TrEMBL record:
Physiological role: Probable carboxypeptidase.
Protein's recorded name: Carboxypeptidase
UniProtKB keywords: Carboxypeptidase, Disulfide bond, Glycoprotein, Hydrolase, Protease, Secreted, Signal
One GO location term (cellular component): extracellular region
Protein's UniProt keywords contain Ubl conjugation: no
Source organism of this protein record: Lithospermum erythrorhizon
Sequence similarity: Belongs to the peptidase S10 family.
EC number: 3.4.16.-
One Gene Ontology MF term: serine-type carboxypeptidase activity
Signal sequence coordinates: 1-24
């Protein structure tokens, strides 16, 4: 579909329109009623709020899940440690952060992995039940074991953050978080308390992983943990690495890649590409102002730069911008209705200890509060981590538009660190699972970039077996070793 004469007018009009969907499964409501119904920052009733001087920092419940016994390989819900809990955020007025913990089905000595979903404002339960958690929700709302759950190789934490996401809440508006300083401090304090309460896990290897807007969260949290370790602030957290799937990390580079990716996959024509690109100089200037001038200019940068994405969507029609092979159906472009139904069952809320708090998949309050953070570059703190040999894996499904692999590849290659040249010249090799190519991999030192075949924005949902194998090899240090073996086989075959 071509609209060459219409596009200049379209781009001008889009500057005045609502911002585009969230980076991670969120569309802004269209009516005031939808807006009110979707906001879960302040619950209908205060839940678990007591005298702050006597309340423990961490309150956990052992999960009792019905209709679930064994996974067929011996793992049993009765013998594994599965818990849900609330953490009282130390730097807050009245904030409680909700989390799940699932013991590894293999060994409690396995690494501890914390998973963060993006949005901003989307619950990590989306990943828990649709991507890489121990269970999936069946159509009759019962739980079934996930054959490729990441608890096969790790102890898993899922956290609803920032405050107002999922079951996390506050009764004080001053607890709304607006930037990565707030996010990283809250998460560092939570991790300190979690490992104090679970000393048997404190010496395990620790990894921070997530997707989408977590491309902002994760570098900030990893840097905060590393800083705390160096300063000997509290419990040493054995941080070994961090991974981001289809993330937003360096907006200036990634927004510039939108039109190139859309042209490459046939969503727009060359003429449309060139017209939309006329917005990029304004976008780049706005991003530079955001980096120096603060909140107002950051919001302006968000509005200006997102006209690039919005113009592509108008031309492409009703595509699923998380997986361009599909059509966008429903408010999240996927049908995740079973999640909200399941999480709001009285029996489930009782098992989780969340009282009367209503669960929603994504909070527009959190989304809007973080708009001033959106266009900031979080790549800047990563080189120092790499220099200290903290591993980083950037992986991306090849059919995602909104955080596409091309933009991610470009910022990773542009990042200045001691291994930049060697990483740039390293050979791209197949990532093989069961003898078939599941992706293409580049690695040097602590840095790896993996483009995953036949996957969109949510790689563990689209390619569960490949994503589990990716996690396992990356954590045990064999991801690049497999690559070296493949290189040798290629050379010997010549």
């Amino acid at each position: 579909m071509n609209h060459p004469t219409f596009l200049p007018l379209l781009i001008s009009l889009l500057l005045l329109l609502q911002p585009p969907p969230s980076v991670a499964l969120l569309r802004l409501p269209k009516t005031p009623l939808q807006l009110i119904n979707s906001v879960n920052l302040f619950p209908k009733q205060p839940v678990n709020v007591v005298d702050l001087s006597t309340e423990p920092k961490l309150v956990e419940w052992k999960l009792t899940l019905s209709n679930l016994t064994s996974d067929g390989d011996g793992a049993n819900i009765e013998t594994l440690s599965h818990q849900a809990g609330y953490y009282k955020i130390q730097r807050s007025y009245a904030a409680r952060m909700f989390y799940f913990f699932f013991e590894s089905r293999n060994s409690k000595k396995d690494p501890v992995v914390i998973w963060l979903t993006g949005g901003p404002g989307c619950s990590s339960e989306l990943a828990l039940f649709y991507e890489n958690g121990p269970f999936k929700i069946s159509n009759n709302l019962s739980l079934v074991w996930n054959e490729y759950g990441w608890d096969q190789v790790s102890n898993l934490l899922y956290v609803d953050q920032p405050i107002g996401t999922g079951f996390s809440y506050s009764t004080d508006k001053r607890d709304v978080v607006h930037d990565e300083t707030g996010v990283s401090n809250d998460m560092y304090d939570f991790l300190q308390t979690f490992f104090i309460e679970h000393p048997e896990l404190a010496e395990n290897d620790f990894y921070i992983i997530g997707e989408s807007y977590a491309g902002h969260y994760i570098p900030a949290i990893a840097a905060r943990v590393h800083q705390g370790n160096k300063a000997k602030e509290g419990v040493h957290i054995n941080l070994k690495g961090f991974a981001i799937g289809n993330g937003l990390t360096d907006p200036a580079i990634q927004y510039e890649a939108y039109t190139d990716f859309a042209l490459d996959v046939g969503l727009i024509s060359q003429t449309e590409h060139n017209l939309i690109d006329k917005v990029l100089p304004i976008c780049e200037a706005a991003i530079k102002l955001c980096g120096t001038q603060g909140t107002v200019s950051c919001t302006a940068a968000y509005l200006v730069c997102n006209t690039v994405f919005s113009a592509i969507i108008v031309i492409a029609g009703d595509i699923n911008y998380y997986d361009i092979r599909k059509k966008c159906i429903g408010s999240l472009c996927y049908d995740f209705s079973n999640l909200e139904t399941f999480m709001n069952l009285d029996s489930v809320r009782s098992a989780l200890g969340v009282g009367n708090i209503e669960f929603v998949s994504c909070s527009t309050t959190v989304y809007q509060a973080m708009l001033v953070d959106w266009m900031r570059n979080l790549e800047v703190g990563i080189p120092a981590l790499l220099e200290d040999d903290i591993k980083m894996l950037i992986y991306a499904g090849e059919y995602d538009l909104i955080c596409n692999w091309l933009g991610n590849s470009r910022w990773v290659h542009a990042m200045e660190w001691s291994g930049q040249k060697e990483f740039g010249t390293s050979r791209e090799v197949p990532f093989e699972v069961d003898g078939s190519e599941a992706g293409s991999l580049k690695s040097y030192g602590p840095l790896s970039f993996l483009k995953v075949h036949d996957a969109g924005h949510m790689v563990p949902m689209d390619q569960p077996k490949a994503s589990l194998e990716m996690l396992k090899r990356w954590m045990d240090g064999s991801l690049s070793k497999h690559s070296d073996e493949q290189k040798k086989s290629l050379v010997s075959a010549i």
